[in-house]
Amino acid sequence: MKFAGKTETGLRPQNEDNYLILRTDAISAVAVSDGMGGHQAGEVASHLAVQTLETVLAEPHPSAEAALSEAFSEANRAVHTRASLQDEMYGMGCTLVAAIVDETQFAAANIGDSRLYHFNGETLHPVTHDHSFVAELVRRGAITPAEAKTHPRRNLITRAVGTEARVKADIFSCEWKKNDMLLLCSDGLCGVLEDAEMAAFLRNCTDLEATCATLIERALAAGSRDNITVVLVKNDGGDA
Fold first, then answer.
1. Mean pLDDT of the chain
2. CA–CA distance from 126 to each of 62, 75, 137, 194 (Å)?
3. In 10 A of CB 2, how many CB atoms?
4. 134 and which of 4, 96, 148, 193 could share a cystine (Cβ 3.0–4.6 Å)?
């Protein structure tokens, strides 16, 4: 299994994104988190969520799905508790998307609008579903995906880590094959680039780190004004 990740501040004054690549003898996992909140609260929220996720996932669990469920619950508790103890952190939160992988399958979970895609060599398929105002409008057929990209309320998140005492993560279990890839990203990437364009870069990928950098460069060139984070995982058929 091969892994790479990169984060870019972009045009924002600070980077509120964080990502995780965790590899131990027992588990291989990746995650991306996009913070929100005033001052430096967004960066604190995403860092705390990823840090908590790493700690919980390193512990033994009966299944990958159980591990993600507990890790997301603990991440939410940690961020919510920190926000309630410090006035300057009040209301902070973050998105969180993560996956646990082995050579035949992966389990994924998400809260918010950071995404996980599965690339099978030709098609880039979104595994997670955004928890956002515009995503709900698209699901109801009220607006098109193209209209969602320019909607005035496109940044409104309907589910986030840490903003409430309890929050439910969506959890997915999927199979994948040798040479398939996973793409995890914050909305600084997928909110700007079309899926077909991202798929084209993955189709020509020979180096994961270089492709992470190229995707970020392309998003900046396309007008992304947000922090941008990309994590790639390639199933090379070896041990996770």
1. 93
2. 26, 23, 17, 12
3. 13
4. 148
Of 88, 10, 113, 92, nearest to 49 by C-alpha is 92
Q: 0.90 exceeded by the pTM?
A: yes
Q: Rounded to whole angstroms, how far apart are CA atoms 126 and 181?
A: 12
**Protein fold of 13-117+126-185:** Phosphatase 2c; domain 1 (3.60.40)
The 10s digit of each residue's pLDDT in 10-67 is 999 999 999 999 999 999 999 999 999 766 799 999 999 999 999 999 999 999 999 9
User: Which amino acid is it at 212?
Assistant: C
Question: Helix or strand or coil: residue 23?
Answer: strand
Q: Tens digit of pLDDT for each residue in 133-175?
A: 777 787 778 877 777 777 767 777 899 999 999 999 999 999 9
Separation of alpha carbons 113 and 184, rounded Å: 11
d(CA 118, CA 185): 12
- CA dist 201 and 168 (Å) reads 33
